[in-house]
Amino acid sequence: MLQLPHSSSLQALLPSVVMDLGRLFLDAGHELSLVGGPVRDLFLGRVSPDLDFTTDATPDQTLAVVAGWADATWEVGRAFGTIALRKGKDTIEVTTYRAESYDPDSRKPLVAFGTSLTDDLYRRDFTMNAMALRLPSLELVDPYNGAIDLEARIVRTPGPPSLSFSDDPLRMMRAARFASQLGITVADEVRTAMTDMAERISIISAERVRDELVKLINGADPRTGIDLLVDTGLAELVLPEVAALKLEVDEHHRHKDVYQHSLQVLEQAAGHETGPDGAVPGPDFVLRFAALMHDVGKPATRRFEPTGAVSFRHHDVVGSKLVKARMRALRFDNDSIKAVARLVELHMRFYGYGEAGWSDSAVRRYVTDAGELLPRLHRLTRSDVTTRNRKKAERLAFAYDDLEQRIEELMAKEELESVRPDLDGAVIMELLGIKPGPVVGRAYRYLLELRMDNGPMDRDTAERELFAWWSEQPESAPEPVRGVEAP
Length: 487
Fold this sequence. Notes:
The protein has helices at about 5-15, 15-25, 35-45, 60-65, 115-120, 145-150, 160-165, 170-180, 190-195, 205-215, 220-230, 235-240, 240-245, 260-270, 285-295, 300, 315-330, 335-345, 355, 360-370, 375-385, 390-415, 425-430, 440-455, 460-470, and strands spanning about 30-35, 50-55, 70-75, 80-85, 90-95, 100, 110, 130-135, 140, 155, 185, 305, 310. It is α+β, with helices and mostly antiparallel strands. The protein folds into 4 domains: about 5-150, Beta Polymerase, domain 2 (2-Layer Sandwich); about 155-240, Hydrophobic Seed Protein; about 270-420, no CATH class; about 425-475, no CATH class. The strands form 4 sheets. The chain has a 7-stranded mixed beta sheet with strand order 3-4-5-2-1-8-9. Strands 6-7 form a two-stranded antiparallel ribbon. A hairpin with a 4-residue loop joins strand 8 (about 130-135) and strand 9 (about 140).
């Protein structure tokens, strides 16, 4: 059974600031407890980087207790009872006991300060996070059997799930996140409440939903977390494109289950990540989210062919647009949006390589179009193979091995990652005697196409190609002198 380490071991595990702060509050006549995630993590044999405390002291009293001891304090969360402080290298949050509830139509809690640690723990999200260590005695307070639920690897709420999720609907997302991070299940009553109250998630800000989603995707078992969001109906509100994959039913089984395929690709992409010093350090949200979303364009592009087959032409392009729109709605940063959308757009580029082979020009374009995303594209493309046909899987793996080898060989010869025309814009303007403008861009793109098709050219060859191109452009013809007809 999971147990806390002995008190002497606990003192050795915890930063010294924990016990010091406990004595400060005790000497001032107040209660102080380490609470939530840090206590849960001690049961799991690890020390949390976050230090969260709860107390019967009001924010003003907390500031008085730490005055002269803390190196700095912040009162940004004062309205919610939270005082943040720094002592040495440790950042700490101390929050007054709460007895809070949410207005059903509001995103913000209605905060009322409490006087009881047990009541405060009752308001917390899950039993495994409703445990506390009184300080400095290190007495465990676990009124809602959080240790038992943690041992059973199950998510329960201290009170009725409906009350917990009404207080903060984001807790429904958090339940799925814990399922992903800790590889655990949710209790039947929790799953039922998530299903019945899924619509409540709509009052939560996009930023908070996004942050929980990122933690879920980066968890040890993201497939389980996503499955829970879909099964409870939450995905229809936060990731409707993924929920639509579940609805993509083919009763005649003319194509594989797109939803289960997408979950398997996500699982395989997470498994293909390299270590912290590799090309794609894990967990990598961009790679994982692209894996989950790579086929979201299929429902909109499904067509039944006269032969009875099913096609999804251009689902990569359609999917890329859908990904951009969803990530913008969730307030992701532009770099992440561009990266995920680009991977979705490129994930089909490889197919056909094994049958027809590629010219050096096609390999150059593959590398150039992927840019810095190439290591992720390698892993996404390999993860996209979920066929049970062993020979087909081996054939695709062999073809991609061959492609990667050709990329390495061409890179060694040509520095493909930074492919540029053999003449830059300044040289183009000098040789043609033109000023900055659209014509320079056209010339640059023409030379870049030549570079892609033929590889590097020496300076003389590049200049000849440029002048040959220029001779065919309307801008190269001298303007007739006014009043004189052109011959």
